Amino acid sequence: MADITERKYSEFYKKEMSLFGAFPRSDSLRFEVRVPRSFGTYYAEMQIHADALDFPDDREIYLPLAWSGIDRGCDVYTLNLDLMALENSDEKRRLFYYRYKISGANEEVFLGGEEPEKLLGCGEYGDRQLMLFDENYRTSVSLREGIIYHIFVDRFRKSGKCTPRGDAFINPDWENGIPQFAAYPGAPLKNNMFFGGDLWGVIEKLDYIASLGTKTIYLSPVFEAASNHKYDTGDYLKVDSMFGGDEALEALIKEAEKYGIGIILDGVFNHTGSDSIYFNREGNYPGKGAYRSKNSPYFGWYSFRSYPDDYECWWGVDILPRVKSDSKSYMNFIFGKVIPKWMNKGVGGWRLDVADELSDAFLCGLRKTVKSLDGDAPVIGEVWEDATNKVSYGKRRPYLRGGQLDSVMNYPLRGAVIDFIKNGDSEKIRTVTGGLYRRCPKQSSDNMMNFLSTHDTQRILTVLGGQDGEGLSNAELAALRMSKKERESALRLLKLAYALIAAMPGVPCVFYGDEAGLEGHRDPFCRMPFPWNKIDENLFLWYNIIGKIRKSEPLLRDGLFRNIVCREDLYVFERAPSGNGKYKMLVVINRSEKELSLSFEEKVTELIGGKKGVKEIDLAPFTAGYIKIPASYAITDECFG
């Protein structure tokens, strides 16, 4: 099949936007398809239809392309398309799929796929996605200005200022203590063992946090709750006393501001704790919780199958009764009291736990509330799949069309990076990144939370170097550690992985301790106390260098993304200015056992190694380079042999 490409020109942006497949709903696009003359094309058309899940009865539309001339050995066919006409006065019509039918002298082909510019056979790669979003869709600018540092409060730093609850067990062995674990995954567990980390301890380490290039601290839940993880909210209007209470959070916000660092909170709004002022199954709160009285003001928040003991809960966990997030009473409470209280105290944004399980009405109302209080505050959703076309409970979710989320946690990128760095899967990193950033609105891509570990996953160091832990009991995992050889290999790979995600569109997010060399298998072993006396200084220095580059280089905050080379031992992509910038960034990931030598006709700067004004750059085995080159300098895969 001939090498056929697509370009797109946007009236809204007044420039070529070939790398993208998401546009403002008021835009007009000119699609330009280039077919080698040898194909003998005599007819071309676009076949486009609305998302069949939302509009199963919609008919496909056939739109002929007009021949527009010959350019460098290719026939050029064009189509002008008013996106508002596609929407057809129905705001739900925002997701479309299309293909091209190209009729040639000897064959007829149907082309689509998710490559940014190259068209592929629909039989293997499917149709091409086109998404429309609100023309006034704006996402956070400040979030992009440095890294996100994610802290699980109980395990980060113990100040000694907070008094434990009477029913809490404190593990005094911060250096070597093992988190409380169940007999098997999913087994009941009180989670009442604490190590004593608190918000005052976070304040004590702001110098350290800032040194990583941090712009935002993302705190796992801090509201009053029975457990050490706090995903079982007891009272949304109180910071837990074991973390220092409201006073400690307010002090952290003020002190972090001196470092230019903002604070975002984990919003757990899909469920509460059974031990809460709202449900009160355990009877530890005054007043009438929903479990104790049908006359409770909170009764309508929950779904009881048989009152009071049979109720809907999150994934069957009975200490986490599920809230009806579309309840007007509940939304009035969250939007009228909870969000305003904390944002008026200086909270700068929200990460939403299990966003897939929150109703569209709730997500729209929450973002509207947040933006009314601070237009730049980010709202980031926990979504594990591609958020542009995510189906949740049989329904297509409009997360990134302008009314619900600024962006999401970038789980697809994490998987692709691990598979490339650990196994050399270059095809996956190419297709995931090229397709993901094509389908997303650029303002959403720029706010993606790019991470390697979270409180829900294995630690990245363990993933890259240790056993996968499959088939092992929690007791076995609690004692399992990498060998010296495994750890050395993992550390080498982790440096590459962090350099990669830090240069991708989005914001690098560091889970506390990753930069120090913390190991850990599945929850709860990924939540070990921070190793303050065992920091891997070499790894920390790498995170420090990369973080500071990420914070200082505008190209890494909003530059255009394009894959250049994707091979088992080498991955190269560029971040180019979206306007008239003088430079672009070439990101080189050398996954080879051999030194990589690069030659340039003009002087360049390699930022990680600090080499300025050179024409020759040598990258050691298993290392990365951030190379600033003139924007006009043409880079292709041929440059790398």
Shape: globular
CATH topology of one domain, what is it called? Immunoglobulin-like
Structural class: alpha/beta
CATH architecture of one domain: Sandwich
If you average the pLDDT, what whole number results?
96
Residue ranges: pLDDT <50 for 5 or more in a row?
none
Helical content band: 10-25%
Describe the structure.
This protein has 641 residues and is of the alpha/beta class. Among the domains are: 5-133, Immunoglobulin-like (Sandwich); 271-324, Oligo-1,6-glucosidase, domain 2 (Alpha-Beta Complex), CATH 3.90.400; 559-640, Immunoglobulin-like (Sandwich). 23% of the residues lie in helices and 27% in strands. Helix 6 (328-344) packs parallel to helix 7 (360-373), helix 8 (411-423) crosses helix 13 (484-503) and helix 13 packs parallel to helix 14 (537-552). The protein is globular and about 80 Å long.
Q: Could you write a compact summary of the structure shown?
A:
With 641 residues, the protein is α/β, with parallel strands linked by helices.
Characteristics:
alpha/beta; Immunoglobulin-like; Oligo-1,6-glucosidase, domain 2; 15 helices; globular; single chain; 8-stranded parallel β-sheet; 641 residues
Please outline the helices and strands.
Layout: E1 5-10, E2 15-16, E3 22-24, E4 28-36, E5 43-50, E6 61-64, E7 66-71, E8 74-82, H1 83-87, E9 95-103, E10 108-112, E11 120-121, H2 122-125, E12 128-133, E13 147-151, E14 169-170, E15 193-194, H3 199-204, H4 206-210, E16 214-219, E17 223-225, E18 233-239, H5 245-258, E19 262-267, E20 304-306, E21 310-311, H6 328-344, E22 350-352, H7 360-373, E23 379-381, E24 391-392, E25 395-396, E26 407-408, H8 411-423, H9 426-439, H10 442-445, E27 449-451, H11 460-465, H12 474-479, H13 484-503, E28 507-511, H14 537-552, H15 555-558, E29 560-567, E30 570-576, E31 583-590, E32 596-606, E33 611-619, E34 623-630
Parallel strand pairs: 3-12, 13-16, 13-28, 14-15, 16-19, 19-22, 22-23, 23-26, 27-28
Antiparallel strand pairs: 1-2, 1-4, 4-8, 5-6, 5-9, 7-8, 9-10, 9-12, 10-11, 17-18, 20-21, 24-25, 29-30, 30-31, 31-34, 32-33, 32-34
Helix pairs in contact: 6-7, 8-9, 8-13, 13-14
